[in-house]
Design brief:
single chain, mainly alpha, Arc Repressor Mutant, subunit A, Diphtheria Toxin Repressor, domain 2, 6 helices
Length: about 120
């Protein structure tokens, strides 16, 4: 199932928060992204319907296997693009991170593969 940029951002945020904390709740995501709890709740409902997350007791949000796979893919794209921008273009970390967050959703697989190849060769 296709997922839009905002959904990908939510999945990536859930992955990052799960690695930091034992539990991830809607309020944690809202605080991390600066969104309203209502917006996050609506997004979680969509991600649940698409079977990317489950919501357990106490509102604990967990990535399903497909959700974790998608979130990891997005997170890895983010890291590679950030590194590429910093190492090849000399972009400062904050700008590279912000721009990578936008680029990761629209970059073609071919261009991303070339970036990954370049980073791997120059590490």
């Amino acid at each position: 199932m296709a997922i839009y940029e905002s959904g990908e951002n939510y999945l990536e945020t859930i992955l990052i928060l799960q690695e930091k904390n034992d539990m991830v709740r809607s309020i944690d995501i809202a605080n991390e992204l600066g969104y309203t709890k209502a917006s996050v709740s609506r997004a979680m409902s969509i991600l649940k319907k698409t079977e990317y997350i489950t919501i357990g007791d106490g509102g604990n949000i967990l990535l399903t296997e497909s959700g974790k796979q998608k979130a990891t893919e997005i997170f890895n794209r983010h890291k590679i693009i950030t590194e590429f921008l910093m190492k090849t273009l000399g972009v400062d970390e904050e700008t590279a991170d912000k721009d990578a967050c936008r680029i990761e959703h629209v970059i073609s697989d071919g261009v991303f593969a070339k970036m990954t190849e370049y980073i791997n060769r120059h590490d």
